[in-house]
From TrEMBL:
UniProt cross-references to Gene3D superfamilies, sorted A to Z: Insect odorant-binding protein A10/Ejaculatory bulb-specific protein 3
Keyword Signal: yes
Signal peptide from the UniProt entry: 1-18
Entry keyword set: Signal
Superkingdom of the source species: Eukaryota
Name of protein: Chemosensory protein 15
Highest classification ranks of the organism: Eukaryota, Metazoa, Ecdysozoa, Arthropoda, Hexapoda
Length: 129
């Protein structure tokens, strides 16, 4: 009986830990292609800014942004973390207006800018105001 209980607990823990990551359903999205294509980038941007229609992956992204910012992307897969870094770097360097609008929407208090400043400076290789 005790062995059965332990197996049940282990199974529940395994199931719970498997649910600790965001869905990988959209991990195959070609982030580089989106960043090269202004029409696609604008479509995703409008989605997360809530001024345009969202594709299924855009809806998932928009839903996850606040939590990912709060918990340092703890539920993100490595691929999702790499994609997020790539997008943020691209927006910061090449589309500063979009970056500022996103920051105003998702970090109006500056909490996350302060939290991630050192990491961002290291990633970008430049000082951030």
């Amino acid at each position: 009986m005790e062995c059965t209980f332990m197996l049940l607990v282990l199974a529940l823990l395994a199931a719970a830990s498997a649910q600790q990551q965001y869905t990988t359903k959209f991990d195959g999205v070609d982030v580089d292609n989106i960043l090269r294509n202004d029409r696609l980038l604008t479509s995703y941007f409008n989605c997360v800014m809530e001024v345009g229609k969202c594709s299924p992956d855009g809806t998932e992204l928009k839903k996850r942004i606040p939590e990912a910012l709060e918990n340092e992307c703890a539920k993100c897969t490595e691929k999702q973390k790499e994609g997020a870094q790539k997008v943020l770097k691209h927006l910061y360097e090449k589309k500063p207006d979009m970056f500022q609008q996103l920051e105003a929407k998702y970090d109006s208090s500056g909490k996350y800018r302060a939290k991630y400043k050192d990491r961002a400076e290291k990633e970008l290789g430049t000082k951030i105001a």
